[in-house]
Amino acid sequence: MALFSKMRAVLMLLLIPVAASAAPLDDYYLSKLGERAQLAKALSAVVGLETGPAERCRTGLYRSLKRDFKALEPATQKTLAKYVARPVLSSEAVYVSPGGHFNIHYATSGSDAPVLTDTTPANGIPDWVERVAQVFEYVYADEVTAKGYRPPPVSGRYDVYLRDLLTEQAYGYTKFDSVPASAVSVPSYIEIDKAFSDHIFTVNGLYSSDQMLQITAAHEFHHAIQFGYNYYFDIWYGEVTSTWMEDEVYDSVNQCYSYLPKYLPLASTISLNMGLYQNSEYGRWIFNRYLAERHGAGAVKAAWEKLATLQPSSSPTTSDGDIQMGPVLDSVLSTSYSSSLSADFLGFAKKVYTRDWNTHIPDISMIPLHAVAATYSSYPVNISSTDRPSVTLPRYTFAFYRFVPSPVITTFNVRITKTSGIQTALFKKESGVVSEISADTGGNAYSVIGFNALNPASDEVVLLVANTTDVDNHQANFSTDGSSLNVSEPTVAASAGGGGGSSGGGCFIATAAYGSYLHPKVAELRQFRDRHLLTNAPGRLFVSLYYRLSPPIAEIIAEHEWMKGGVRVMLVPVVLSVEHPAGALAAVLLLMGGAGVVRRRKLALVRVRR
User: Fold this and answer.
1) What's the rounded Cα separation, in Å, for the pair 235 and 241?
2) Are 416 and 478 in contact (CB under 8 A)?
3) Based on the number of CB atoms within 10 Å of its own CB, is 331 exposed (0-12), middle (13-18) or buried (19 or more)?
4) CA distance 387 to 133
5) Does residue 600 sit in helix, strand or coil?
6) Candidates 1.10.10, 1.10.390, 3.30.160, 1.10.540; correct CATH number of 51-366?
7) What is the pLDDT of residues 415-447, one digit of tens each?
8) Alpha-carbon span 393 to 476, nearest angstrom
9) CA pair distance 120, 512, nearest whole angstrom
10) Short-list 186, 241, 196, 191, CA closest to 219
11) Helix (H, G, I), strand (E, B), or coil: what is residue 451?
12) Which among 347, 238, 350, 229 has a CA at the least distance from the CA of 295?
């Protein structure tokens, strides 16, 4: 009962600040950075919801805050001012790295001061500060000198600040002083944790502090490089490349593999070019691994070099002005590598199943196995099957369907009916050996001879279905008896990833309540719509009904400020459940459990009175 009371208090205290916020973006940034964020963390700790590890990177958050800062309420600006300015360290000292490329800024007193492991350093410099300098020089030599990336544009040495980031629960981030007025390149600086010694940084001791320093330096310094190429980089690909770079510079650490479960098992619902979404962007680094294996690591660098030649097309002061990376990748792959993003995305999806990675061989076991959408053992497979043999896929996603041997078939046949954006592949596994089966001349049917339960070598047949376009809701269905269902070409194109990774329009009521289609909360709701509603018939029916009924309601909300605040309060449970599905489920279960306890006590009292 005590835990139920705590949870109820947590929910109420989290709702009150949201209700009080009248400006469209204020509540978002306050919940991420301000006193509200500290309150949420403290209350989470009270009820035992803190699970770590630290947040990999906050570069995207601070870039958007800098863009949106003038739109915030004066009180919010005052609260968050320290997050858009360079840090002020207590009794600051500066150590120049041995190679002369970095100024390492550190505090000599206060909470930001690094802990001395050598209490009497001969040169007066804490040994950890010297180690930070060594690591950043190594990263510079690898990423700039060896790999050929353009060094960050700075006047003099690059600034790195050591800070106590435990309260932010972040490893580090790359920031800049001002939004560029005309040029696309912008100087930057980096802030990282002062020691990486807390358990949320070492993932409860799984990694050493030095290892986390290494990969954080490799990650954030590449963000500095990215800002030098083009400030308007698409944030999802910025995180993909920085996370991939961790493993390229420090191959033995391998912490980046822990992010793969955030993406690969969900690759049928999380688009490759989706924006920042539940840390999946850190797992999507594996696509760069594929590009590097297929075309060489220079293909990734070529994409950033191409980006440096481009200008934002519109709204450069918002994430909507970011240059979408899908078309950039497609242009580079087509021009320099006789390929395309569509072809390479299909090849990547194939490799997720075949697992024939040809670099970082000792680490392949850390890549999750492909996720199976459905397994079929009863034939024929058709519309009457328990698991419906049909799928609607968001842009740049894929799904696998598994067929196991049966004595009722000797030759396995499967026919696919699909829209124009769907590509497929079929694999046969015999005695553990995988081979790809060629399609018929029309590309819509496959045959596998000798696939039978009587053949001891037959393991499985797996069908890959991929949406290899930047358009959501391409459809496919399949059968083993030649039957088929109608499919409909999608009518609404996606926005190609952008800052929020959204597609289409809609979310009228949320847009009216938060004041902007680009508000991060609205983007999260759009992503939930794309991932969970538009991928199934009941969800699409709900969305269709919502689109018919909500516009006039949204118009009324948009005209009245007091209604906007009320609707935002009503949307809080929805937004929280989208942002924290596990926490929302736990809260619901606790509330239901608490309600059950109350009901049982009332019944007991009634029995006693009788």
Assistant:
1) 10
2) yes
3) middle
4) 56
5) helix
6) 1.10.390
7) 999 999 999 999 999 999 999 999 997 889 999
8) 8
9) 60
10) 241
11) coil
12) 347
End-to-end CA gap in the chain: 26
Over the chain, what is the mean pLDDT? 83
| pLDDT above 80 (res 514) | no
Domain ranges within the chain, ordered by starting residue: 51-366, 372-479, 508-579
Q: How many CB atoms lie within 10 A of CB 570?
A: 12
Verdict on whether the full-model pTM lies above 0.85:
no
Average the pLDDT over 303-318 and give the result.
Answer: 83
Side chain identity at 130, as an amino acid letter?
A: E
Q: Domain 372-479 in CATH: superfamily?
A: GOLD domain (2.60.120.680)
The two tokens of residue 301 are 């660098």
Sequence-separated (6 or more) residues with CB below 8 Å from residue 18: 27, 31, 568, 569, 572
- Averaged over 479-485, what is the pLDDT? 93
Q: What is the pLDDT of residues 579-593, one digit of tens each?
A: 666 555 555 555 555
Give 560-609 pLDDT, tens digit per residue.
Answer: 666 766 777 777 777 667 666 655 555 555 555 555 555 556 555 555 55
Q: What percent of the chain has pLDDT over 90?
A: 60
Q: Which amino acid, residue 271?
A: S
Please check whether residue 27 is in contact with residue 73, taking contact to mean a CB–CB distance below 8 angstroms: no
Helix axes 235-249, 286-295, angle to 10 degrees: 70
Joined tokens for residue 552: 């006039």
Q: What pairing do the DSSP bridges indicate for beta strands 474-479 and 445-449?
A: unpaired
3-state secondary structure 105-156: EEECCCCCCCCCCCCCCCCCCCHHHHHHHHHHHHHHHHHHHHCCCCCCCCCC
